Amino acid sequence: MSIVQISHLTFCYDGSSEDVFTDVSFQFDTCWRLGCTGRNGRGKTTLLRLLSGCLDSGGAVTLGGVRPVCFPFSGFDASLTPETLFTQWVPDVEPWRILCELSQLSLSEEVLHRPYHTLSGGEQTKLQLACLFSSDAVWPLIDEPTNHLDAMGREAVSQYLSSKDGFLLISHDRAFLDSAVDHMLVLERQKLEVLRGGYSTWAAEKQRRERWEAARNAQLKKEISRLDAAAKRAAQWSAKAEGEKFVSKPGQQGNIDRGYLGHKAAKMMKRSKSTEARLQRAAEEKRGLLRDVETSEALRLSPLPWRKSSSLISLEDVVLSYGGRQVCGPVNVSLSPGERMALLGPNGCGKSSLLRAVCEAAGYPQPDGPTLFRGKIQAGSGLIVSMVQQDAEGLTGDIRTFSQKHGLDLTLFLTLLRKMGFERSQFARRLEELSSGQKKKALLAASLATPAHLIIWDEPLNYIDILSRLQIEQLICESGASMLFVEHDAAFVQNTATRILRLSEEGQAIQP
């Protein structure tokens, strides 16, 4: 057991005018299963890099003797076999320990002898985690392991992690966090919070605290208004007292003692100024007590109405292939206006291929899309589609140019980004400089700002923070939009989908 101590940490990237962390202090135990979450851009990955020593903390981080190692590994030759790579990743790893860890993740020994780049994303994730936990000499720092894992893979990895002790895990998957961790580290707007329990424990405590703070803020704002009004009246009395020494009252007889009136006015003005200053100080103190409540504004979506009686799309005995190899089908399904259909199934069963084929049939060409080997895909006449792809890493240029390129209403686009947690200062940055979560938000905001009959999203929540997921859930449920989407966040699917189409490992529709 070791204690990680972070004392008065202030960190800013070179060339940036804004601190990622400002005078932050907290501590935690390395034997905890510590989950970490927070808005995109709040510094979660930066914190991992500070803890691992990839960034200089200026002596603010004390590790207590542990050796941190980050997941995912980087900077290695993916053409090598995992068996060869282990000595690069964790030099002191023992082969028999890796075999034990692989069995807990339901991976066969065979994956050790294949070139790393030939493994699926799920196999690569499980393999790296097995390597990390096969050494007692390291403290794992795990950055978003659920990206591109299917539902079964997430369940397997969450059960695996729940059997371990001593790691820090960044994730935005609510069910995954609840299953895998026993403490939470939450990065909010002005503070960091550490508490015992999983995501649901923190969410319940956050709701209770925000209700109390909202009530407290409302009371403080009333008091501030009252004090501001009182200060304003005091200023008016002061001005009146000063002016009265030069004005004769109607019917006043004889000589006016200007000295006496001036003395009296000066006393009144001094008392009024003192009262005004005291009231202003009190108002400022009340303003300082206003709580930092992390809020998320509701998003808005106005889908194009589909005034026809026909389905938006229909698939009849559809079989898809790549290079003559069948990847999906047969599938028979249709989507009616207002339905939100989730495509579920293991990695590699053809979910993304099916989405691409639908877009192609609707008149939206897809590079490297599948071939319609058999069957028929019918899209409604004049169907307008808005799509978000899995990968957001190819974005370049500035936000305004991106908006023009996609024919978006710039004001609406920026408003959506602001509501999803973008700071105004980030609008001036180039897209390639943003975090993976911020890039994905740019794609989502572009899709939401595009009028469409049908929204098609392929794993839209990869890298997206929990507050934004909740915003998007609410938006989808309230908008009445028609959707076809792939997503492995179980809570999101449960809360948004009106219908589920499951594909088997071979890509066959097993539940229309």
Automatic annotation (TrEMBL):
Domain (ABC transporter) ranges: 4-214, 313-512
Record's keyword terms, sorted: ATP-binding, Coiled coil, Nucleotide-binding
Claim: Flavoprotein is one of the keywords in the record: no
InterPro entries: AAA+_ATPase, ABC_transporter-like_ATP-bd, ABC_transporter-like_CS, ABCF_ATPase, P-loop_NTPase
Entry's Gene Ontology molecular function annotations: ATP binding; ATP hydrolysis activity
KW Nucleotide-binding (keyword) present: yes
Regions annotated as coiled coil: 265-299
CDD domains on file: ABCF_EF-3 (cd03221)
Name by which UniProt lists this protein: Lsa family ABC-F type ribosomal protection protein
Species for this entry: Solibaculum mannosilyticum
